Amino acid sequence: MTTLPMRLTAPVPGWTTRADVVVIGSGIAGLTAALRIHSALRERSDDDGARVLVVTKDVLSAGSTQWAQGGIAAALGPGDTPEQHLSDTLVAGAGACDVEAVRVLVTEGPEAVQELIDLGTRFDHHDGVLSLTREGGHHRDRIAHAGGDATGAEIQRALIAAVEASSGIEVIQHALALDLLRDADGRAAGVTLHVIGEGQRDGVGAVHARAVVLASGGMGQVFSQSTNPAVSTGDGMALALRAGARLRDLEFVQFHPTVMYLGPDSRGQQPLISEAVRGEGAFLVDFEGNRFMRGQHELADLAPRDVVAKAITRRMLETGQPHMWLDARHLGAEFWERRFPTILATCRSHGVDPINELIPVAPAQHYASGGVVTDLWGRTDITGLYATGEVACSGVHGANRLASNSLLEGLVFSRRIAEVLPDELAPWAEPVADDRPRGVVDGAARGELQRTMTEQAGVLRSQAGLNAAEVELRELLERPVGAIDVAAWETTNVLTLSLALHSGASAREETRGSHWREDYPERDDAAFAGHFDIRLVDADLVQTFIPAAATDLLPTSPGA
């Protein structure tokens, strides 16, 4: 195989089930969508039998949401306003945000967070007042947190409890989404799945549905080191691409600046040291003890993530050191144990006590700002297919996500999908056969693929490195394939997205936000203010440049 498959090679479905709506993913975006859609369907119908099915790749709590340490951003504090939150988001997004999408996020965000609280989420309070902290790029304390540094886990707990209490929401766990089903009119009509260990629903099957919501998270496993869990292989993005939807801005991959450095050979999910630690007063130093972020940005150690990641990488290159250090010793034992108990335990499990020692840190892949193109209501190019959360490109994040906006995005845009989807549901229609070319990549190629992307398309990129990466990635398409299994399906998704990411990174001959080209170190609005959209057409990738709307190129001055 020298081209990308239009469908995954898989056995004929051995079982079938039906649901009005199937939601792929069980993080904040997926569970919020399921709860809100189910409630809306029941309100709009005399039939109490409206059924929503949640499909999750592992167990309900295994996605990226549970790993979110810092919190969720919203203009909830005294003196803060949505306009200030909007300004900070646009500055971080480096001229690549959709301003109207950001406005939706920041204006609807406070109400959405309050709804989480009403659902039972226990955010931290001090003297009866919601505790708010600050992270990189924010000019106000607007990050609500829970359990000190266990915000995602607490949100996940509350959402799971609500889903389990709902009689109309079914869950299929340990299920990998393979491909979209479509009806004779081209509408989404369900998905095929591979399920492990679900009794009668075992192996490959099909879910027939009237609408599909993708909330499957990001693609962290494209790289050797990521803060994302092992399930983050970009399955939803790849599924949408094969179905004919556009992806956008895949080159804008955020590398979190402070990931705990575990050594040169460490692979897979890496421990995140939340930006909130710097928000509470920790700071970066080099091996000589110099605070190198001073003079780099007005916010110093709390600059936007792309600024800090680049500064750390530059200092590593200048000094020949494999990492830098985070100094949080002055915070003290009592503060660490109360505010960051999870991070404290993680550091200690790796032999570092941050109460008394510096924490070794280096950038690692953290978040995909790009994804499946949606409108302001989560609609994709395919009627009946919606996307929300990290799998989607709503336009909120631009070239660099502002800290703690991701949980808010999943929350806000899932609520918006639930406002329109019930009225857009089509009558039941059976899926039609899809005879387009099928294929998979050898599952054993994953490690080599990740190594290529990390070395040639990671934090620092150049045309020479990107050219080498394309040759190596294309060679993997020609490898003999072993078993047709989960490893092969996931590796096919990862390789498909790697080539799509490479295409945007190679074409964007500038440095903007989280996309850093050492051969084009300046931002170039004249040539590259806009987006690279990519489709899979006739088994290969076709890329189009979409110039930015004039309203998206607002001045990037910091907020008040």
Give the SSE map.
Blueprint: E1 7-8, E2 16-24, H1 28-44, E3 52-55, E4 72-73, H2 82-93, H3 99-119, E5 125-126, E6 129-130, E7 132-133, E8 143-144, H4 151-164, E9 169-172, E10 175-182, E11 188-198, E12 201-214, E13 225-226, H5 235-243, E14 247-248, E15 253-260, E16 268-269, H6 275-279, E17 283-285, H7 305-319, E18 324-327, H8 333-339, H9 341-349, E19 359-368, E20 371-373, E21 385-387, E22 392-393, H10 405-424, E23 438-439, H11 446-456, H12 463-477, H13 486-507, H14 525-528, E24 530-537, E25 540-547
Parallel strand pairs: 1-23, 2-3, 2-12, 3-9, 12-21, 13-16, 20-22
Antiparallel strand pairs: 4-8, 5-6, 7-8, 10-11, 11-12, 14-20, 14-24, 15-19, 17-18, 18-19, 24-25
The CATH superfamily of the largest domain is known as FAD/NAD(P)-binding domain
CATH architecture of the largest domain: 3-Layer(bba) Sandwich
DSSP E strands, number? 25
Percent helix range: 25-40%
Number of helices: 14
Strand content: 15-25%
- Label the structural class: alpha/beta
CATH class call of the largest domain: Alpha Beta
N→C terminal distance: 55 Å
Tell me the CATH topology of the largest domain. FAD/NAD(P)-binding domain
The residue-averaged pLDDT reads: 93
Low-pLDDT runs of 5+ residues are 554-560
**Overall domain count:** 3
